[in-house]
Design goal:
The complex is a heterodimer of chains A (114) and B (111). By secondary structure, chain A is mostly beta strands. Chain A has no helices and eleven strands. In chain A, strand 9 and strand 10 form a beta hairpin. Chain B is globular. In chain B, strand 7 and strand 8 form a beta hairpin. Chain B is built from no helices and eleven strands. Helix content of chain B is 0%, strand content 58%. In chain B, 36% of the residues are buried. The interface between A and B is medium-sized, with 23 and 28 residues.
């Protein structure tokens, strides 16, 4: 069975500081990995995804994530936080099957302090 | 752009009422999903559908049913709403095995 663990339900950074949101997964088959962002009172928006190929994936809004198979991790980073990055972030995993069912982590709320 | 719409952003119902939540997507996606989102639990899959009139249970189907009579529309039904079904409900759609696109969500309160 697949699962996702996001370390830290709340992360607080200062504006301009590095953002690091941690995600570890378990999967018995090659995973597809996703990061979604949810702004208050909105649905989820795709930030980036890893399927195959290059392990460093760049997404929208300056975010990137690196797939590390040996560490079963897919951590999300951004070099410099903006106030507008304050939101909830979800990591998710799926296999490559046709249904594409996603397994989500518990979510990490990012607070950005001025 | 893919658009997934949900019938209501906010809904208040009473215990025992039958509740319909509707989701419509405009990109001819085969797969549609219903999740509920609760603080600290992330998103949990209630039901999904991979074709018209086809459905499969997700992780927490108890107390819910679904209907997919047309490809673009996927309805979630609470046969007899209970207070523990107060939650945010999110609909998503995707092509086979690809990225899921989410609607804005419906925040349901059951009194």
């Amino acid at each position: 069975a697949q699962s996702v663990t996001q370390l830290g339900s709340h992360v607080s950074v200062s504006e301009g500081a590095l953002v690091l949101l941690r995600c570890n997964y378990s999967s018995s088959v090659p995973p597809y990995l996703f990061w979604y962002v949810q702004y208050p009172n909105q649905g989820l928006q795709l930030l980036l995804k890893y399927t195959t190929g290059a392990t460093l994936v760049k997404g929208i809004n300056g975010f990137e994530a690196e797939f590390k198979k040996s560490e079963t991790s897919f951590h999300l980073t951004k070099p410099s936080a903006h106030m507008s990055d304050a939101a909830e972030y979800f990591c998710a995993v799926t296999n490559s099957g046709n249904t594409g069912k996603l397994i989500f982590g518990q979510g990490t709320t990012l607070q950005v302090k001025p | 752009d893919v658009k997934v719409t949900q019938s209501s952003r906010y809904l208040v119902k009473r215990t025992g009422e039958k509740v319909f939540l509707e989701c419509v997507q405009d990109m001819d996606h085969e797969n549609m999903f219903w999740y509920r989102q609760d603080p600290g639990l992330g998103l949990r899959l209630i039901y999904f559908s991979y074709d018209v009139k086809m459905k499969e249970k997700g992780d927490i189907p108890e107390g819910y049913s679904v209907s997919r009579e047309k490809k673009e529309r996927f309805s979630l039904i609470l046969e007899s709403a209970s207070t523990n079904q107060t939650s945010m409900y999110l609909c998503a759609s995707s092509l086979q095995g690809r990225t899921q696109y989410f609607g804005p969500g419906t925040r349901l309160t059951v009194l």
